[in-house]
Amino acid sequence: MKFFRWATLSLTLFLLGGQTRAEDSAPSPIIPVAEVDLQRYVGLWHEVAKIPNRFQKNCVSGTTARYVLREDGRLDVFNSCVEEDGDRNEAKGVARVVDTDSFAKLEVSFVDFLGWRPFWGDYWVIGLDEAYRWAVVGTPDRKYGWVLSRTSTLLPADMEAAFLVLETNGYDRTAFELSAP
């Protein structure tokens, strides 16, 4: 009987210890910016860096996103890129604001079934230049991330500032690839 109690206690302590270590090693949540002025955010953005992903695998250059504010408070999203064969790939979607206090947490959808959008993905603005010259977008799971700019390239100091935002939010800068203008 003593052995059983000792084994149970040892197993319990082992499992609790494992939970504690797992919690200690879990990354802290990403932090969106305090506020996004959507009137200033709308317009054309150029992708200057991204975490490679399956839905952009054919894009080789010229990736842009254009946001247009709608009367209902949502944003029309127009993504575009140039593929290897020179053709332009375009996708139209919708973004909705999730956090109306900051307007920094949005969700986007590019799937539309007769007006119904069953799939939404996180789009959190986690870095934003004061003059809205560049932005950093991420997701809570850190699976996706982008550095966006109003121009097709960023000055080295601005790129470093964007990467510091990413690292502060638990991203690995080496997971990002620079995008061709």
The biggest sheet amounts to: 8 strands, antiparallel, barrel
Strand percentage: 25-35%
Helix and strand element order = HHEEEEEEEEHE
Give the tally of structural domains. Answer: 1
The whole-angstrom Rg is 21 Å
Mean of residue pLDDT? 88
Report the total helices: 3
| CATH level 4 superfamily | Calycin beta-barrel core domain
Count of individual beta strands? 9
End-to-end distance, in Å?
71 Å
Kindly identify the CATH topology.
Lipocalin
What does it look like?
There is one protein chain. The protein has 181 residues and is an alpha+beta fold. The protein has one domain: Beta Barrel (Lipocalin). The chain contains three helices and nine strands; from the N terminus they run ααββββββββαβ. It has helices spanning 2-25, 38-41, 156-168; strands at residues 43-50, 59-69, 75-83, 88-97, 105-109, 121-128, 134-138, 145-149, 177-178. Strands 1-2-3-4-5-6-7-8 form an eight-stranded antiparallel beta barrel.
